[in-house]
Structures are given as C-alpha cells and as structure tokens.
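Researcher: Last one for today. Full complex below.
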Amino acid sequence: MEQLFDLALLNTTLRVLTPILLAALGGALCSRAGLFNVGLEGFMLLGAFSAIAGNYYFHNIFLAILFAILVVSVFSLIFAYLSINLRANVIVVGIAMNALAAGLTTFSLRTLFDVKGAFYDKEMVGLPKWNIPMVEDIPVLGPIISGHTPIVYLAFVIAGAMWYYFYRTKNGFRFLAAGENPLAASSIGIRVRRYQYGAVLANGVLCALAGAQLSLGQLTMFTEGMTAGRGFIALVATMLGQSGPLGVTASSLLFGFMEAVSIRFQGLALPTHFTQMLPYVVTIAAMFFFKDKSFVKDAQKQSSSSR
Amino acid sequence: MQLQMDNITKKYGEFSANRGISLSLKAGEVHAIVGENGAGKTTLMRILYGMEQPTSGAIRLNGREVSFTSPLDAIRHGIGMVHQHFMLFPSFTVAENIVIGNEPGKSGRFDRKHAIQIVEELCGQYGMKVDPRAVAGSSPPGVQQRVEILKVLYQGAEIIILDEPTGVLTPLEVQELLQAIKHLSKQGKSFILISHKLNEVLEVADRITVLRDGMVTGTVKKGETDARQLSLLMVGRDLEELKKKPSIPGEKVLEVSGVTLRGTKGKPILENIYLDVRAGEVVGIAGISGNGQSELLQVVSGLIRSDKGNIRISGTDVTGMSPKAIRERGLTHIPEDRYVWGANREATVLDTGIMAHHRRLQQGGLLKQKELKALVSQWVSKFSIKTGSLETRTQYLSGGNLQKLIVARELEQGAPFLIAAEPTRGVDIGAMETIHGELLKRRDGGTGILLVSSELTEILKLSDRILVMYEGQIAGELSAAEATEEQLGLLMAGGSIQ
Amino acid sequence: MNKLTKYASPLLQPLIAVLVGLLAGAIAIMISGGDVLETYTEAWKGAFGGFYFTTNTLTRATPIILVGLGAAFAFRAGFFNLGAPGQMIFGALVAALVGLYMPGPGWLVCIAALIAGVAAGGLWSVMAGYFDARFAVNLLISTLLLNYIADLFAGYLVAYPLKDTSGSAAMAQSAMLDKSVWLPKIFSGMPLHLGFVFAVVGSLIIYVLLKRSVAGYEIRMLGGNPLFALYGGINRGSMMIISMFISGGLAGLGGAVEILGSQYRYIDGALTSADYAWTGIMAALLASSNPIGTMIAAVFLAALQTGGMGVERNTEVPLEVGAIIQSVLILFISARFTYSFWKRRKGIKSHGTAV
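Model: Here's the assembly. Have a good evening.
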C-alpha cells in the first residue's frame, strides 16, 4: 500500500482540486448573491474549450486564457440576464446553460477543427509549471507545493482574497447584505442587481480559469464533456462549505484528494470503472453529513417573499 | 412646513391607490395616518420614501420641490423609514445593521471597531439602549425596532416614517416606543406614524389624517377627536355590534395535556401546555406573536411533532398522527398565513378550494369534478368572493377574498373542532364582519373553536374563554366576561394578575 | 379576449422560442459555411421527408417521450429529478439481462424485460428520493451524480462479466437478444416499434392522472406549495417515493424499449452518446411539464436530431447544429418572458395596495 499514498499523490491532489475549487468559489459567490448556479459544469466546459481554441489560434497561453475568460463572460451575461432581469427559474437556466455548452463545444469542435471527440495539436503549449525556488527544496512540503501551473496558486490566492473581500471590506459587506436580504438592501440604496451581476461575471471568470486548468494544465487537449461532472461536484463543495471561502476550500480539498486517489488506482489492475466512480460516490456520501436547509424553510421563503 | 405633499395621485393601470392626497408635516410634529387595509397608506409612504413615483402631484421639502427616484434620494433628503416588516440582516450584528450603507473605515476597508463606537455614541445621544455586538436576528422585536430607528437616525433622518410599528411589540415595548417617539420629537425630529391602532395614535400624535379608498376623509388635531369619530371616518359607517349569544359548552373536542416542544437550541418553545376546547365555545389564545402560538397549532394539527404530551380530538388520541389522519378525526384549520400554509398561488381557485374535500369527493381514485366545482362556486356566491372564475389563479385574488375562500373551505368540512388562526389578518372590515359572523354561527351550531389572534379586540369580541400565552407557556386564563385589555396586556408581557 | 389570451399565451412562448432557436441555428450554419435554406430543407427531409424518415424520427422520439414524461411527472411534484440518464441506463441494462437470461417463450420474456426495466429505473430513482426524504440529501445533485455511477457500473458489466465474446469486435457490449424477444414493429420494414404506442398511451395516461385523479391533484399541489400540501394532509415523503418511482420507471421503460425495439443489446455509451435522456428532460422543460406538450416537444427535438443527420449526410454542416438549436430553445423557454411580463402587469393591478 505504501506506493499508493505518497507525496506525489498530494501533489496530484493540488493539481486536480484546482478546477473544483475555482468553480466552487464561483458557485459560492453566486449562492451568496441568491443564485443557485447549476450551470458551473457548462461554464467550465466552455472555458476548457475556448482556452484550447484560443491557444490554437493565438499561440499564446496568456491570450488563450484571456479569450476563455471573454467567452465565458459572454455566456455568464446571458445567464445573468435571464435569471436576474427576466426572473427565469435559475435551475432551469443552469440546466439550459449546461446543454448549450455541451452542444456548442461539440459543434465548434466539428466546425473549427473538423474532429470528433477530442482535439489535440502538437504545436500547442500548455500552462507552464512553476518550480518555486527555495520552496521546492523544503523536504516533504516542497514536492507537494512546487511544480504546479500558475492557476493552481492563483486559485488559493483567490480563495484568500475572497475571504478578505467578504469579511474585511465595505463592498464585500454590502455584497453579503444584498444576498442575505435583498429587499432590505435595496431599501437603503444598495444596488442588489449590480452585485448579482458582479457575482455571475466573477463566477464566469473563475469557471474560465477552472476550464483552462483542465484543458491546458496537464495534457493540453480538449475532449467532449471533459468536465465530467466536476461542476456538480463543485456545487456540492459550495454547499458543504456553506458558501464561505474557507469551507469551500476545505471541501474542495476533500474532493480533489478523492479524484487524485481515483487517478492513482487506475494504475492498478482494478477495472477503471470503479476507480472512476470514487469521486461521485464520495461526493454523494459527503451530502449525508451536510444537512441541506430543510425544504420547509425554502418553501416558506418562496411563498412569503413575493408577498 | 417642513414637508408638504400636494395632491398626490397614484394609479396602477385603472386602479387608483391614492387619489389627490395632501398632507403636511411641521418640524417636531408627530402626524399619524390611519385607515383600513387598502386605504392607500402604504402606497403614500412608498411614494414619500422614493420606492414609487406618483402619477401626479408634488412633494415639497422646506418649500423646495423634490422628486425621489429611489429610497437613497429620500435618505439623502433626510427622510428615513422603519418598515412594518423589519429590514434587517439577521446574521449581522446590531452595529453592522446600523452603519450599513455608510460604513466607517478608510480606503474600502470596513472598520468594525469604529462602527461599535459610533453606535454607542448614537445610543447616548438619543437615549436608546442597544448592544452593538449582539446578533440582530436573535434580538427581541423591541430591540430590532430600536436598531431600525437608530439606523434611520444614523443616516441623518429628520423625518421618520414608522409603518405599523407596534404590531409585533409587547404592551411594555409599545410604551417604550411611544416614549421614544415623544423624546425624539422634542429633539426636533418629526414623525409620520402609520397605524390602525387608534388608542396608540390618540396617545402620541399631534395631528391625525384619515384615509379611505385612497382619499383623505379628514385631518383632525389631537384633543379634538376620539376613537369613534376616527373609525367613522375610516369605515364610512358605524360598525354593527356583533350580537353574541351565551355559549352552551358541550363535550370536549380538544384536549391538550402536557405538550412540550424543544427548539433547536434546547430552549423550550412550548412548555407543559394543558388546555381544552368544548363543543359550542370559542377559546381565544392571546399573546404577542412568537410566544409559541404558531407551534402549538402546528402540533395540534400534526404539522410538527411535540417532544412530550398528548393530544385528543373528540376523545381520540391523535398524538403523533399525520395531518391527514388528524383531519379525518375531526379537525379543520384556518391557517395563520394564507400564502404559506393556506393556498397554492400557482393553482386555480378551484384547486386551492378543494384541498381536503378532494379525498371525500372521489370515486375510484378520480376526482368528482362536477361536485367539487359546484361546491366551490357555491362558496363563491355565499361568501361573495370576488374572482374572475374558478379557473383564475389564486395569486390574483386579493388577500381578503383568498381569506374568505380559505375560511369557506375549512368551515365546510363540517368538523366538530376548528382552529382559527389570525382569521382576519390583513382583510378589510367587510370581510372581517363576514368571517366573524360565520365563526360565531358555527359556534352556536356546536363547533368548538380555538381562536389564535394577535389582535386583542378580536380575541375579546369572539372568545368565551381567553388564555394568554407567554414564552411557550399558558400565562393565565380569564373568562371573556371579566377580561379587560389591561389585564391581558399585563399577562402578555409576562406579568401576573392577582 | 380572456379566452384568447388563455389559449394563445402558452402557445406563443414556445413559438417564439422555436423561431429564436432556428435563428441561432441559421447563424451556426452560416458560421460553418453552409447555406441556411438548403440546410433547413435537408433537415426537414431528414426528419419527415417520406414515410421511412418519419417513422425513423418517431422511433428516435420514443425513448425521449418516455423519459420526458418521467421528468415532467417529477417536475410537477416539485422534485428536480435530473437522474433520467442513469435511470434509463438501468432500465436498459436490466431489460437486456432479462431478455438474455430469462427462459420461456419470447413474448413472455419481452414483457418481463419491460417490467424489469421499469422496476430497475424506478428503484434507482427511488433511492435518490429516499436519500432526500430521509436524510435531506439534495435530490437535484444526487440524481445528477448517480448518472455517472450508473453509466460506469453498466459499462463495467458489459466490459467484463457480460461482455459479448461471440463477435471479433472488442466493443464493450452485451450479447445480442434472441429475435423472439424483440418488440414487434408497427410497419414491416420500418424501424418504428411498439414502444412508440407505449409512449403515446403513456402520455395520455399521465395527462389524465395529473388532471383528474386524486393522486395527480395531490402531486400538483405538492409541487406548487409543499407546505399547503402538508397542511392539507398530503404526505410528502410517500408522494416523493411514488412520484420518483413513476418518474424513474418511465425513464427505465424508455431504456427498455430502446433495447428491445431498436438496439437489441446493451452497448456501452450508446444511450448517453445519443443523449436520449437529456433530450427528454429538455422536452419536459420545453412543455412546462405538460404531458401532451412533452410528447409533442419530444417529437420536435427528435426531428432536430434526425434532421441533423440528414444535414450531415448531404451538406458540409455538422449535425450538432441541432444541439445548438435545442439548447437555445431551452434557454429562451426558461426565460418565460412573455408569460412573466403578462403576469407582472396583471399582478400590479391586483396587488398594488397590498404591498
């Protein structure tokens, strides 16, 4: 068993948890703004695809990520307009966004690259891996922390920044207020919609980064449906972490670790089917320990809010 | 004049909520606005506070015409509003709730220590006490209201609008509030007080304006009027005295013994409750809302389970039974919140109306459409429920009409025991008279009624016996004949009477 | 006037959505260098150009209708069951197993396989319902995640213990069902099988059930306001189990008829790559969970797919253009713009003073 659990496993954990963490932080922003975003999966998929497309056309990793952010932001705006301005059912819009992302990426894969299933090009360069001087020489910790893509480090910086924003700044305070009681917030002149738009757009940027890490972080390729439910796992991470940056980071760590273990198991003689199941099983199991707000409260809120 | 509202008219489509209303306010004055539900009080205040724009008419502040497009405009002009349903952020602290919108701190940082200091200074300046570090959501209603007033003062308000401020307060807290209003008006703050409680208005207001159907029916000075004249102006006619026959109590239809319910934090919500209701009597439960009345009703009707105790309906032990089973044993229930418990907004009037009747009028698992339709249309004419058709969505019914539909639905179950929770909350006087009349008719027909209401007048008017609930316990029992508002108020506030 | 808006407004919205969807499709076609009119003509021919293509479209619509009905049923009860893909897989897998290994006359095996498919899909679905009712595990998310588990589990079975070893192909698939257990075709030589009749009859039954039956009333009330339902004596827990079983059972039936009527064996990934289940969910959303509407929407969405295939055969435009039209459609439907606009205006009138 000792080959199973070693430092490389924890190194892998950091790499694979990043997309989940980024999307979950985005989900946390949305849920704090009162929007339960089921569309994380789709946004991430769009991000992954457009990062590859940007990389292919611009031959520049930085522009590729910028392009991904731009594309996902456009779709975030659609999401925001439908759910905030037109008051569509957020869950339905989220599902539709997922479907749109799946359709759009496969369509574009055919139209732009004339391939089915997956796109890969030798010319493309993935994200750089940073070996941090000094840190990489620290025993035990060094090999875990060092040697990741910038997005991995950025994810943790963002989590910290979000904590600071929520609990130390005036703007973050008002953001939380707008989410907690929109009616009261607007009665003192807080522009609730503006914060909601901000949350959805920021979520778009985070999901774009998450997607870029997926498609450019390890193999530099795009495969159809490559997010494989990570957006939904991120959603659970958001719920488990009660939409707080620290809690979300902790639960993303758990799910990232499970995915790393699942990847590690694939090297063994076991059928890969069961190892691939692991993250989903653990995620469902995790929901048993986190009690969702009872339906009574939700329904009460729904029925009385528009009175 | 500090504030002058001239000829304010507000139309929603063809409906006029305000019709040519004029109103003035002097510095340091307390001006009350009274009227029935739907008379246009709230609309007028929303206009003054920038939440709505008038269709026509002008607002002048210190002689200058102003127009507000948002509450922020109103706040900048020194107008603050304390809403009927508090506009607080429950998970935030008192200090955070007060300074929000104008938080202290440099370069975008929120300085919470400074916020606490500010709140302490405010408390000193205006002679109101709050703990700035307490969490707003777990503070009692009286404190929450003080937080709201302090927030408005912190925002620099000179004119403070109070919308139905005493609805959730204990009599003691009401007195504190009225004192605070007097105190602040001496310091030069002016108040607009919206209320339908005439005794409170008469105690604190300098002038009183009465609205009916969106129009001013009179403005009177303090000391030149009385409750009877005001209610005449409000309703437009003298109210009929309700004639009540003496009750003839029969068998026990409800027996509650030793019911205890613990909350999530271990604090008891209900503690060792004993009460019974006999056929042919109305037992009223008085109390400030939030003292366990809602939970008691939910336990009795099977919506939540108690931790201890027994409930019998018409002699059958129904403890722990499902709401369906309890209904089958002879309970029917006018719920306290018609939108939360009593109706499905998306459904048609017919569908909302047949709930629980649908189990009776069926054949082989299929609904008897014709009978059900006939039943509901019969209520519609009997209770004069205004609705487009039976296919109209429930959400388009006005509050009073929906309440009548719910009352009809529950009364027509013909069960021996009826819970009537806040049966007339938010309905106009006409609907109120209908509902009260029907309830008493049922009582005389032998139904046992458990009435819960936060309106003392309603309790006194309908009940044969009155129980007072305070902090999850029965604080006392009085017979209706000898009970007075003063005694009830004392019990409601946790006092005792000898 | 009142009658007109009553009947027109629910139709207006899907109509506008379809137009916008076709417009988005046109843009996609232009991007991929095709001729819009020609492409849409090819799409029409591929979907309804002649008897064969029409029955082909209806064959494709069959599992979509059944899954869509299941989704609509759960949505009506207020449960966001997004587990149709997994429920369908279990229905298909178990139907294939019964069809392969149960002894007895062909017609009996076929019926048993259908029933087993319903039970398998229903039970897989009930599991998520039970987790929610008993342990408050969010249904929407658990059903979504269970899809991946079901797919992997079925994939494992046909890749190892049940792998078809007769053929030389290395594909992960079960052995082929015996001809005697296949669902009969409706027209000889055409792909359309008896499953389509099940789907149509199913729509009618679900429609009547929801509209006229006691259980249907209770389910609608539960979906509209759970607290009102509880107060009126409707048991949420048992209703959840029942409606999740029916919902998953219909998805399972969808999988079973696809195996017994079209594919005759369980092929790993065949159901998911054809996207039957998600299309069914889309159909339910498109029709605001009305059973008859769901059936119509399912046929329309199936036509987009078969039309897309026609397009791909005869033009340079890829068939995924259908997927774009479909998701744009849903996006617009989800906005419910016409309806909410109408509601808001009406709402102000009656609630103006109550605020």
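The radius of gyration of chain B is 24 Å. The CA atoms of residues 128 and 146 of chain B lie 7 Å apart.
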